[in-house]
Amino acid sequence: MSQHLNSLGVDEEESGPLLLESLEGNGISASDIKKLHEAGFYTVESIAYVPKKQLLTIKGISETKADKFLAEAAKVVSLGFTTAMDVHQRRQEIVTITTGSKELDRALGGGIETGSITEIFGEFRTGKSQLCHMLAVTAQLPVSMGGGQGKCMFIDTESTFRPDRVLSIANRFSLNGESTLENIAYARCYNTDHQTSLLIEAAAMMAETRFSLLVVDSAMALYRTDYSGRGELAARQTHLAQFLRHLQRLADEYGVAVVITNQVVAQVDGGASMFNPDPKKPAGGNIIAHASCTRLFLKKGRGANRICKIYDSPSLPETECQFAIMEDGISDAVE
Description:
The chain is α/β, with parallel strands linked by helices. The chain has 15 helices and 13 strands. The strands form 3 sheets. The protein has a 9-stranded mixed beta sheet, sandwiched between helices. A two-stranded antiparallel sheet has the order 1-2. A two-stranded antiparallel sheet has the order 8-9. It starts with a helix and ends with a strand. 37% of the residues are buried.
């Protein structure tokens, strides 16, 4: 399926992010750029989007040098006001990645949106990881087929990634199984610090080749075990907020769709559970709620069917739809 491989070798120079090397000269040396690379900064946008104090934490970057970097980045990256019409036109061009189910795509306004964070939460057995496997394949499809025309990055914290699922889904779209697996960059993650350091590596890979999707399955699992009790809650939420901010930065810089899965916790405050027959809420509290652009709540349906509720979105109505988990991935609900 050479067409599939060619479609991923898209020349991104024209519309992709500007690499940091373009700032070399004007008082910025190659060794300065190397220091920023080691800290996870690979694009001009990544410099423009961070506060100055973050640059000052990098070893070997003085205040004068940080000012120089920020000034040069500001010349290239537009950071001022624009018109709502410009925003509207840019929004029209946003690529969405199909979920494989027409009904679910319709509820999502076309599919999973690139350039923002989509959170999928629900109990076990509701299809969170299955949807992630499906998107890992559809992200590689050409835009004309509802894909993202790029590679996929998969950060696995719960050891739920199964290559055989990817192969059966690739078969559905007549894709070459080996090349589909080759186009998925996979990392097994073991603790919350490792989870954050993987994003620095992710930035380096995204600067080199075109990725359209970053999956973190699950974003909260390690935080719930690495930090315990109310005593460590503040530290946990701060660390989580920084991780989610880094994810948003990758979405902004490289235009990738970021999909994170989340677990649910039982609400034990008596008042709420008295009127709510199913008192569950997503883990992570307000920090993860504010960081996610779109939140999808998955529930078990009858047989292979699952129910997806648009739990929170700035543009989508709060609706419910059904989809099914089949041998070849996600599809429309079965009767």
